[in-house]
Each structure stands twice: as C-alpha cells, then as structure tokens.
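Changelog-adjacent note: as of this version, every example in the card shows the full chain rather than a window. The one below runs 216 residues end to end.
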Amino acid sequence: MRAGRAAAGIGVAVLALAACGGSGSGGSSGTSAAATPTPTAAAIAGHLTPPGTHLKFGQPATAGWVPTSLDTGTAAHKALKLQVTVRSVEKGTIADFKNVRLKSAERTSTPYYVKVRIKALGSTPPSGTNDDPDVTIDAIDDRGQQQSNIIFLGTFARCDDARPPKPFANGKSYDSCLAYLMPGGGSIQKVQWNSGPSKANEVTPYFDKPIVWAAT
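Full-length structure tokens:
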C-alpha cells in the first residue's frame, strides 16, 4: 500500500488481521452521484486517454498504470494498459462505522465512498505480490485538496477495498471501493488518475495533468 494512505487510527473491531481485499458489497445509505456508463471519444482503441481529460462519473478511461514493482530506476517506464471507470462518489453516514474504532474527532466527520471498476487490457499482468492499481486513484475535496483513503484492519463491508484477481490478465476486471472521512463538513468532489508511461529520467505527463472524473 502506498504511504499516502491514511490509517486514521481506525481498526475494525474483532477483526485483527490487516486486509484490503474481499468482494465489494454493502447497502447504500446517503446519496450517489453515479452516471450511466457511456464510452468516451478520448479512449481510442490502442491509445491512452490523453492527459488532462475530464470525464463524468461512469465514463471509462483507457489509462496507463506503472505498478509499484516496476516503478524503479531512471529508465523509461512502460505502463500496463487498463480501463478505469470511477462509477460513483457516495456520501455515507457516521453510523456506517458503528463497528469501527474511531478517535473522538473522527466521529464528527462525514464518510465518502469512491466506487471504481478496473479492467486489464493488456496481455502482461503485474508481477508484484502487492501491486494494486486502485492505489493510484486520488480523491479531491471541495477545497481542491487531495485526500488519502482509509486503510482498515479487516474488511469494511460498506466500502470494501478489493484486490485485483490473480492473475490480473487481459479481460479480467474487479470492483473496488475507497473510503474517506471528511472533517468539517467537507466533501469529495473529484477523483483523479495520475499514473502513466514516462520517458527516461522524466515523470509521466499524467502527474501534472491527471485524468479527472466529476459529477458534471
């Protein structure tokens, strides 16, 4: 898991082992900003969705992903091709965390759940044991600030951060959910993807111009 993810003092009661896997499920309390999936003209077969593309929730992007196990050295980074769809951003209630240990300040926060679907489009699956493309996804709040999702000890059924299938081969897909606790009445407004291929000794152009999803 990337260091940017926030544990936030959270652990699911009676579940002792750290895990980020499982099948996504859970009821839908709160509101949803989902849209019916529609193809985007930017996702042309054989090409990646261009840097800086803005999409609505439910629209797929053809994205490049450089797994952690390959993101080393100064040589050119060749990304694996994925279809990434941010399906919805849902507002929850703090009652969703009734079986989760929270700090007192966290109990006044508002939870948000980002639901995504990721499909492998290439013939070469990632080789790293802990490679998971959903760690590339960042949430942006109503102040334009990047937010880190929560890591649970155990499975949080309301928003389960699933693992990709093994092997994550061409045509395989999975649904996952990332949970956020927003203090002070804040909200999640956008979701972005900033991974992609890069030339030697350069960062990917998606770092400065990520693919962005929003309700409108």
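Structural remarks: The first strand starts at residue 11 and ends at 12.
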